[in-house]
Amino acid sequence: xxxxxxxxxxxxARQALIETSVxxxxxxxxxxMVAIESCLFCRRLWLKVFAEEIDWSGGxxxxxxxxxxxxxxxxxxxxxxxxSIVTASTGKRVLWxxxxxxxxxxxLRWVNGPVGIPPHD
Length: 121
Known about the structure:
alpha+beta; six-stranded antiparallel sheet; globular
């Protein structure tokens, strides 16, 4: 049986990935974060990329998050660069969360990599 963190239902996968332990913070700013996290249930490693743009007019900042499954070996080489994120996500199924500024809830879906760093402030 596979873990919920890789469930075909992106809502279930995101719920599992909210409950992670941080293995290593690679980059941490208020609107851009890259970290390696471990699922609390199966210990699978995930590269989490969080990006937020400031909405100066309405204050409802749009946010994007990618969760990219990675191996222990890949985790040793990840840095906070677009090239590194693209390399880590190429050929993989990536969980994508997009919380648009006018949305009541995030849009969640599995996408095929590669993905890059989303826009952020």
